[in-house]
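Shall we go through a protein fold together, starting from nothing but its sequence? Label the sequence line and the structure token line clearly, so we can match residues to local backbone shapes. Would you write everything just below, so we can both look at the same thing?
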Amino acid sequence: MNFEALDGTKLVLLMIAGAAFAAVGLYLMVRPKVGDAAKIELFGLKFESSSAGLLVFVVGAAFLSVPLFAPEKPTPRGTATAGASGGTPSLKSPALRLPEDAEVSEQEPNDRSQGANIVAFGQTVAGDVKGDEADWFLIAMPPEPPREISLMVRQVEGNSVDVELFDANEFKLKSMSVAAGAKYLNADVDGNTQFFVRVKIFRLFKRTRYELRLSDKLGN
């Protein structure tokens, strides 16, 4: 039988409740009884107890034993929290922030959304992707975001490149393929504070160089 992991606070509350129930149950069992009462032996000691006291003690003992079977839920690590400027989004695992230069190159590994390169809004990033991998980027919206955004992707060298745009919850919004030159993918911001971009190709053992930039529809 598998028990669901509980956080530390819930485990402590269960132990406190168990101790309280067990103490009340012991009191009910050891206090002087009037009339007939059930006789039980506990840790070598004999007590006269009512069924109510025994029941309360059993409930408390069950609560106290929960931590022996239910594992403690681990605390998430590597969480990055958004700052006042909204520049660093929340992530489930460490991600690499690229320098604030106007044009930068991707940094590997970034083949999963959890390790996406963090790119500034309006910044151009150059990448190199091969057929058995994908490149992920995370772009945070500025404090006063535009109503619409435009994702520019330029195929620089190699095969055609396929690009997908995801919202803050990693729900795919749009996609396009760029075989030569530059193409633009437009989308509404719709309250999103950040967007994910995935770049890939469908040809094994081939490589493609590309550039991308997420900005408003005016190119800023």
